[in-house]
Amino acid sequence: MRDAPALLTVRAISARVVSVPMNRPLWTSAQVMRQAPLLLVDLHTEEGITGHAYLFCYLQAAGGAISAILADVGTRLKGKPVTPMLLRKAMADAARLIGQRGIMSMAAAGVDMAAWDALSKAAGLPLVRMLGSEPRPIQAYNSNGLGLIGPQEAADEALELLEGGFTGIKMRLGRPTAQADLAAVQAVRQALPDSVALMADYNQALNMVDASARCAMLDGEGLYWIEEPMRHDDYASYAELRRELATPLQIGENFAGPKGMATALAACCTDFVMPDAERIGGVSGWMEAAALAAAQDIPMSSHLFPEVSVHLLAATPTCHWLEYMDWASPILQSPPEVIEGNLTPGEAPGSGMAWDEEAVARYLVG
Questions:
Q1: Which of 20, 51, 165, 225 could, after both became Cys, cross-link 250 (CB 3.0–4.6 A)?
Q2: Residue 223 in contact with residue 247, Cβ under 8 Å?
Q3: CA–CA distance, 33 with 248 (Å, rounded to integer)
Q4: What whole-number distance in Å separates Cα of residue 114 and Cα of residue 305?
Q5: pLDDT tens digits for 139-178?
Q6: What is the DSSP string of 246-260?
Q7: Which residues pair with 165 in a beta bridge?
């Protein structure tokens, strides 16, 4: 019989910003990124177990701001039991005046993910088993690169992204003209085997009028989904666009917690959802969101964070696709391995993440 897991107590929370070079630049309609600004979060306990998590900061300066918030929060949480619900409430109380959105919600998600990692380690279980499920292969699509480049270059890169046995890849849209987007989609779709799913992401580049026109041009071009063509929270326009298109719509990376997702589902504005672990509320927020998706039988995918998302998706009733990026791999001791296009949660206790301290030192900011 397994020994009962130790009760854990918060000793401190520390965070470090690293800037990790991307193997393939992320060139979207919003910006070009060649470095991944990550915030490494460590929740230290009095019992000697440390929970790990990381956040994707989008802007390097945001990492510094979240780090400062976590330093203050760590002082407030010192001595409290590592109970996700209790820690979420304490974080919410700390943010009552400034608000619980943006970097405050990101900080709370980082603490939640690190807490679940620590608790899983104390229990001697991988996170997926801690959540009541078991490891299983999760289909992944390759979301590295394939930005706003020319049609032939995009077609060539798309074929390179199949390495590892991927059966899905994602390209970015939002070029200056609709014709340029169409040409890129046609070139990539023609280059890929029919069995490979091709997703496309506009990164909120369009207004409703342009989204209606551009997405209509792409209808019938073999896209698996069209992702966030418009402002992420314009649910009324998404509902209208959904009625116009045969191609499924995908939104969700910007859901502000499970309540944001509930509002979107009530508007019947999307075919699929893809919450982001740091915006949906960490592990705790994800599981609430998974219940919402299951109640309406909506396929649920992940956004970023493949290391923890593979555990979360394996515990998600309507599990769909895992978005794979290798951005954190250079600073991990054991990066996740893609086998025949799938990621499978490991049996190591926790989420399986441990920092490669030599690499962390190399990419440390400040």
A1: 225
A2: yes
A3: 28
A4: 13
A5: 999 999 999 999 999 999 999 999 999 999 999 999 999 9
A6: SSPEEE-TT--HHHH
A7: none
